[in-house]
Amino acid sequence: MFGRFNQVARHLTRPLPNLAQTPAGLAASMTSSAKFFENKTKTIHTAACLIIGDEVLGGKTIDTNSAYFARWCFSLGIQLKRVEVIADDEDEIIEGVRRMSANYDFVVTSGGIGPTHDDITYHSIARAFGLPLKLYQPAFERMKKLTKPHPTQPDFNWDEPSSALTARLRMIELPYDENIDEDKQSVFVADDSWVPITTVNGNVHVLPGVPRLFEKLLDGLKEVVVVPRLADPAGNGSYRVLISTPLPESTVAGYLTDLALRVAPHGVKVGSYPRWGKKRNTVTLVGSDKDYIDSIVADVAQNVQGRRVATEDEDDPPSDTEAKQ
């Protein structure tokens, strides 16, 4: 069986990138073992998310993964610094992933790892760091075990070359650093899924774009990779207080400016959000020091003539329909 598999793999796996012909300046970005492990083990303070897909930019699909990732980061106390949506374009992916990897502690990409010609995320990220692609054997074995035959492919054979097999193998040809143990570069976080999360340059984690799968794998990644590296290993996350005020932003702007400067040394951010068409606006206090934030809530509420609420609409008057019920 393995002899036939090797023949299939040689026949179907795409050629490795020719590093001598990589774009100008790309060689300087090539990953190293030292950089990989430095990025993979350092404390996670900041994060970024790169959404890849023409369908998002074209309005065909609504991106929900970045919103899920934002809530995920907030719950863990990670500062999400940047979210970008880019096309299925090799140069765009290379530029974006290299910049994010250099600037942020924890990076996820979403999308572009399917079986079709426009799914170029693995290939592009490999080129971004001067790496070849390699068929990941553990993923292949899980794929065979967990994938059900499609009714439109009754003659599909895992051991015989075919266009359908070529398409499937595209999804498990991963960026590979031959100087690093293979199992440290990819991880499975769901027992019922063959999809690996591959890590490049130590801090770039490549996830699928399908929301249900993205969410499942991201949640699985939390316990395996993220929690041990949090600034607060207990995972208490960020703390947010909402204060409802009847005053317009222009009235409270001066006070909030002074407040923001006063609380910044405590790691607290002050926000102000107008609610168009409503009678009340919202002031927020966000940070990791719950006790300190709670200690200033009463003073803030007094100065904006408001009160603490659980939801933004808590103090809204009932609608006409609700009033008649």
Primary descriptors:
single chain, 325 residues, alpha/beta, Molybdenum Cofactor Biosythetic Enzyme, Chain A, Alpha-Beta Plaits, 2 domains, 6-stranded mixed β-sheet, 4-stranded antiparallel β-sheet, 13 helices, elongated, disordered C terminus
CATH-assigned fold name of the largest domain: Molybdenum Cofactor Biosythetic Enzyme, Chain A
Task: Provide the succession of SSEs.
Answer: HHEHHEHEHEHHEHEEEHEHEEHEH
* CATH top level label of the largest domain: Alpha Beta
Distance between the termini: 71 Å
Q: Oligomeric state of the chains?
A: single chain
Residues in β-strands, percent? 15-25%
What would CATH call the architecture of the largest domain? Answer: 3-Layer(aba) Sandwich
The helix content is 25-40%
Q: Calculate Rg over CA atoms.
A: 24 Å
Instruction: Pick out the low-confidence regions.
Output: 1-29, 320-325
Number of separate domains: 2
Widest β-sheet, arrangement of strands: 2-1-3-8-7-6
Largest sheet: 6 strands, mixed
Question: What structural category arises from helix and sheet content?
Answer: alpha/beta
CATH homologous superfamily name of the largest domain? MoaB/Mog-like domain
How many strands in all?
Answer: 12
> Judging from the principal axes of the Cα atoms, what is the shape?
elongated
Mean pLDDT metric: 88
